[in-house]
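hey so i finally got around to running both of the ones u sent me last week. sorry it took forever, my laptop kept dying halfway thru and i had to restart like 3 times lol. anyway pasting them below in the order u listed, first the sequence line then the structure token line for each. didnt double check formatting much so if smth looks off just lmk and ill redo it

first one:
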Amino acid sequence: MIRWGSAMDHPASTVLNQRQPILRSSDKLRAFQAMRDAGVRVPEFTTSRAEAQQWWQDNQRPIILGRTRHGMAARGIQVYEPGQALGEHELYVKHVPNQREYRVHVVRGEVIRVQGKYLDVPADHTNPYIKNHAQGFRFR
């Protein structure tokens, strides 16, 4: 059985996507740490509000995304412009301007699918920092 994101236990005799890896990948902090440790480039991130505020003091002036460790469809994300007072969050991430986002599906160490995120409904895109379904983006 292949489970696309379900972290529930399942009685199937063969499960290709085990519960623990699903939980690990859905935890934004653990996923960033695992990818960074594997040599994958990820946005700069921290769990420290003081460290995130220091990014602004260092004249980097990034947009900062305060977020929960678990969430989807942009739930749990707060966008902070340079100089704003940061709220309490589980994770702070430097926004990286980009034109494309990809999702890579891996089963037993092999890439089986790659999806790009595309703006399919431009009229819905009102927040330049959020690229989710409500903002008109779809994975294809």
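and the second one:
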Amino acid sequence: TVVLPGALLLLAAAPVKPAPSLGKAEAACRANETGPALLVAVTGLKDRKGLVRAELYPDNDADFLADDAALVNAGKLFRRADLELPASGPVLLCLRVPAAGRYSLSVLHDRNRNLKWDKLSDGLGFGGNPKLGWSKPSAASASVVVGVGPTRTEVVMNYLSGLKYRPLERP
């Protein structure tokens, strides 16, 4: 069979479909990572059920929390890391980035592992730990700055409590 160069271009341009694995290979940190990466320490968890998912977006309102496949298809940054919650100890995720800079970050505590946000039971957190209302925070308020090497940030989880999403109250 003969494959025409134009046919190869069409195959290469085939759109990426949404999938739980999108952005994971690009985000995977190497052992002893030295390049630009974000180390996300997750605190304030309701429990150790399920998993935590961190996602990194371009730092602008149009792209923040946009569909992962749409971002990838447009050639825009999207990184994702999932971590099964350990029974105890610190919860730390690592996301590699292409360069030092400002990015917007979201973290989901997916308590039932369905890879979707369940507003009544799952927790949410964002870079910069903005106070949450009923709409998504701005990209700027959820942003983090990543340096030329691994950069640590802490995200405090928020859960529905009464009519608001807020960190759990500790006695």
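quick thing i noticed on the 2nd:
The first strand starts at residue 37 and ends at 43.
anyway thats it, ttyl
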